[in-house]
Amino acid sequence: MLLGGVQLSVVAALGVRMQSMQVEQAEDFRLLAEENRINIRLIPPARGLIFDRNGMPIADNEQNYRAVMVREDAGDVDATLAKLLTLVDIPEETIAKAREEIFKRSPFVPVTIADRLSWEDMAKININAPALPGIIAEVGLSRVYPWGAELGHVTGYVGPVSDYDLSKIDDQDPLLQIPKFQIGKTGVENKMEHTFRGSAGTKRIEVNAIGRVMRELDRVPGVAGKDVQLTIDARLQSYVQARLDGESAGAVVIDLENGDLRAVASAPTFDPNLFVRGISVKDWTDLNENKYRPLAAKAVQGAYPPGSTFKMVTALAALEDGVIDPEETVWCPGFTEVSGTRFHCWKRGGHGNINFHESLKQSCDCYYYEVSQRVGIDKMAAMARKLGLGIKHDLPLSAVSSGLAPDKQWKTDVRGEAWRIGDTVNASIGQGYVLASPLQLAVMTARLATGRSVQPRLVKSVDGVETVSGAGVSLGINENLLRRVRASMNDVSNHLRGTAYRSRIVAEGAEMAGKTGTSQVRRITAEERARGVTRNEDLPWERRDHALFVNFAPVVNPRFAISVIVEHGGGGSRAAAPIGRDITLQALYGGQPPLDAYPSGDRERIEEQQKRIADMMAAVSTRATGDRA
Amino acid sequence: MSYLEYNTKYVPTGFRKLLYINWPIVFLLSAVACAGFLMLFSVAGGSADPWMSRQMERFIAGLVLMLVVAMVPIWFWRNVAGVAYGIAFMLLIAVEFVGVERNGSQRWLDLGVMDLQPSELMKITLVMLLAAYYDWLPTHKTSRPFWVFLPICMILLPSYFVLSQPDLGTTLLLMLGGAAVMFVAGVHWAYFATVIAAGVGAVVAVFESKGTPWQILKDYQYRRIDTFIDPSNDPLGAGYHITQAKIAFGSGGWTGRGFMQGTQSRLNFLPEKHTDFIFTTLAEEFGFIGAITLLTLYVLIVFFCAASAITNKDRFSALLTLGVAMTFFLFFAVNMAMVTGLAPVVGVPLPLVSYGGSAMLVLMLAFGMVQSAHVHKPR
User: Fold this and answer.
1) ipTM over the 0.90 cut-off
2) Is A9 in the active site?
């Protein structure tokens, strides 16, 4: 009986234990069981693509084979890596880096050992999987820029997310924890990162006691990044890039109808693909130590004294203010003396009596010295900002320059000095404190040509949804005055005495109106002026003048505004205007223009140039589109 | 009771004996065995191989063995008790020298057709010997020190060899089973009180000796005890089995996760899922209802044995039946306590359910004798 009692109490204890575990704590244990068996893995979404305005891919995703190691599955990491090396040729450096990463991360985190393996290497790893514990051959997507360097400054590039990136950005996206996850580092890739990235998918996988994946339970696919269509015309961009080849230059083509940026080119440029793959030390040094600064997107980041291209601003400010009548003449003896300092006109002998129209056409400096003193810097700065200078245009590009439209307040605030009249005189011809980027000059020209507040637009559509047009609204500038400015610009290009007459367009209906600019980067001393100003050709490259040219075309019903700057290129009419003309024709004709659009004397030379550029473009185009077909 | 007395009472003969078999026990045993088949099928991932089909063959062999043993008069078993004990003891010693080693312990004898675990045989022969001893011993001498010392030797001698294999679980079962037979035979309670006190002392000694040159248990046994006390201090090492078993057990809930749906066992989180830990799989897949049902079946088997023993006037029969029932009870109670985390993991299989040949056949042999006692009891 006693024994029976003992037995019964033991049984009762067992029963109670079972009840407490299976009924009362069932939820907890169920949860533990689920945790045991289920692992959640992230599925990186496909990055959104970038297309040009004609639907040509300019940033694409390609299959990327890579070898990944999970430390806890590998056992002896070094032995396994050594075995891998006997199969696949991986640089010592890469292996060392990967090894460091493997030991830094948690043992269960897969670490990429080698990227961009060939299909053969991939197959070798797969076949030898039993001998390579912990090593998985994976296929993922990687960014590729089919147009290579042509759009490097626009698209920017992606690269593996770094600890520095993580510390810099406040972003809880778990995707960033994926090793070597590609994020945008510069350009559109960087500025529109969240549009391109999409959101992580997850897959729940069942694992057994030793962590082997038994099956996939379910998969939430995640959302692929959104595709973006840019306003850039890749072929035109390619042309501009080829045309600028050999110079340190920037050029912008803007569509007057809606502000579309058809081309934003900076030369020299760089191949963004180099960065995606992890740039080599040599390539990096080459890019960084090049005195033409290939990494700088001069078209939007550069801030240059606009030189004579600023004269339209000075003139419009004065004309609008009524301090001078368009027909009123100013005496140009070759210099103007302002509070004891001589400000020289580019023409030593002077232009004599000169009115607005002639002053712009011949780019007389004295006229602007005079009218700027009448209207004052503040009104000039206001007009500059109205025309898009000195303000930062909202574009998804890196380090967009805001330039500088200085006024009295600015100098007090920033320099802590009072504005002096000489500053106004310098500013009147786009020197001194005035700075503008090629993009801003193109916007200025667009606004002059249309009278509307044309806004530059780089993104045409996101995920198929068209963005707001940059057409803008009326600037409220007297239309008669604008017409006079345009007429003067027309004569700059098309009148025998215009500064850009040699770079005119003769095709009926395609004529352009422009303005040259030559901005000084050195100070010309009194002695030098007395000796005779040294010619640009005789100066070292970095002390030569910047050459600028802005224009719109056609003169009647204009469609495009173009700005070109050639760093240290010398005179605007000689170095920049021909480039502006060529780009204009290319844009107007949507391809190679007929030779008879050029003045007859130029045609032979142009034909040669067209052939050379066509060859360059063909090489790029084949790479960009050919091998994808 | 003597042979003459048996003859004066009515004892069934020939095939009439079949009518007197304790059929409820047969059915209960079969039911438990069927639960075992089901679980072995499940843990093999829905396959009769490698375990279920062999287990079925053995159970059928065991059933036949049981019936054959049941047909043999109970006094035969009483008379061979000493010889059986002797043979089992010899085999146990043989294991020391020619045994097959598995998982670090030497428990098996390779008999060609099957591996025999003499310690299993020892369990039943010890009960037989003790029952025969007390049948022979005049009742008034039961509690005399010398006559108490003798059976203690009978228990401790084989226990020592089993412990040295090492097999702590079976050792405990031998000692507890033997003590239970002595207790029901009427040995004075003071002896048990003394032993229990000594036992507590021994436990203290075991822990005290840890780390000293004369430590009593093996390191892995200490680890198991430590782990039992706090499994969480080593969840991926020694505590892994217990933790995973508890998770499997608890996640069953009321009705379980469904047949063959137990993630813990199917994904190999469970250790020894076809032997010692098979109960956790059952609990995981059939829940509290399944677990309590199996427990009830076991309790009913013990109950029917006890009922048979109490109504049996033959002292050997009664003691044997109670002894077998007690051993059986210890089997499942220790196993269940172990997998639910109430007792340290000592390696006791779940009778009739865990995969294993010797244990099954020896158990059926024991129940054969229980049946023989039932069939041949004086009426």
Assistant:
1) no
2) no
